[in-house]
Amino acid sequence: MQARAIGELDVNVQRLGLALEPNGDPSESEGTLNPASARTRDGKLLLYPRDVARGNISRIGLTEAVADGDRFSFRRNGFVLEPSAMYELRPSPGYGCEDPRVTFIPALDQFVMTYTAFGPQGPRIAVATSKDGYSFERVGKLVFDKPGMHIGDDKDAAFFPEPVRSPAGVTSLAFYHRPMLHLSAVDGRASIPIIERMPYDDRESIRIGYIPLEPALKDPQKLLDVCESELALAPDGNWGSLKVGCGTPPMRIDEGWMSIFHGVDVIGKGARPKLRYAAGLVIHDLQDIQKIVYRSAQPILRPEDESELHGIVDNVVFPTAIDPRPDLGARVFDFYYGMADWSIGAGRLTLGGGPGTQREPAESAA
Fold it and tell me: How far apart (Å, rounded) are the C-alpha atoms in residues 240 and 298?
């Protein structure tokens, strides 16, 4: 979609430091990273990290926030999902429940979790729901079976919190997703030269899927029935040129639906080129979410700290959770992100200004 300037948007990002790191437990021996977040009905902040055991076996944990001034520490409280469904298990290493996002959807009166179920078919998007944010029940895998839809590896999904009108005019629940190129799923680094020759719109991009609301209200299984999917945000030449994907679930602000997304660039050449995962801001029109009204011309967060530069996968900041902080200001949001696929960092996003002339964001560190 063609972006149009929404006007002045002052964006400030502050690093708040480490939120969570592996504690020595075998369930976290290969990292605790890429969390979802939610506020319970009584306002308590929860984080749901991806905990990775030896062999790249992933579970979705539960942690409860403990206030520490205007920030939080987190206390572990077990797991909300461990691999048990057939679409989460396979004989070879590397399986489980990965990279959750959680959105409370008032129309359903439920917390809806999307996560990557890595099983015998590879990565697929799965859904679980909860009434309280503590106990989740699996619904199943999203079904993409309509003509023209991508059927295959898919990940990085997150729901919008409110029903919207789909491109076909149907009141629907909308969600981000990122269909994967088969060649990158097989060998990501070897595929780089091929991807760099592809048009940007053909590279791995953020799409928006639509699930009709009325059937989902009557039958929980209909929450899996994807009826439309449209390209929303593709890589471009500024940054995130290799691929882009969903980061945090969208938040409503005055200008539209705001989300922090991730983009991947090649930063080294040679036999083993290096990749960099950075984060940027995207805002969708409130009424027509396929329209992008703002996209960061440059990342708002790049790997810079040691914990972001070196880990299981180097040069990674990977935002997955966002928490509005009205106690600190109407346009203040804490966000949580994976650092080098090993630990979790916290950041604070502050938006100033409003409609006017776009202004480049600037990073700042705590």
Answer: 9
Sign of the dihedral through C-alpha 154, 83, 33, 342: negative
Q: What is the pTM of this model?
A: 0.93
Residue 45 CA to residue 327 CA, distance in Å, equals: 13
Pair 155, 116: CB distance under 8 Å: yes
Q: How far apart are CA 351 and CA 332, in angstroms?
A: 7
How big, in percent rounded to 5, are the helix, strand and coil portions of the chain? 10, 50, 40
**Alpha helices (H) along 178-248:** 182-186, 192-196, 213-218
Strand, coil or helix: 267? coil
CA 171 to chain CA mean position, Å: 23
- Which residue's entry shows tokens 């298990």? 89
CA dihedral 164, 166, 172, 175 (to 10 degrees): -80
Distance CA 132, CA 25 (A): 27
Contact yes or no for 84/359 (Cβ under 8 A): no
Q: 225: which DSSP letter? A: B
Taking a C-beta distance cutoff of 8 angstroms, is the pair 245, 156 a contact? yes
Task: Look at the alpha carbons of 239, 243, 249, 254 in this order and tell me if their dihedral is positive or negative.
Answer: positive
182/153 Cα distance (integer angstroms): 7
On the 0-12 / 13-18 / 19+ scale of CB atoms within 10 A, 116 is buried
Q: What is the pLDDT of residues 218-255, one digit of tens each?
A: 999 999 999 999 999 999 999 999 999 999 999 999 99
Q: Which residues are 207's β-sheet partners? A: 177, 231
Taking only the tens place, the pLDDT of each residue in 172-209 is 999 999 999 977 555 566 788 899 999 999 999 999 99
Weakest-pLDDT range from 62-71, 118-127, 186-195, 269-278: 186-195
Q: By three-state DSSP, how is residue 210 classified?
A: strand
Cα dihedral sign for 91, 313, 62, 158? Answer: negative
Phi-psi region of 144 (alpha: psi -120 to 50; beta: other; left: phi over 0): beta
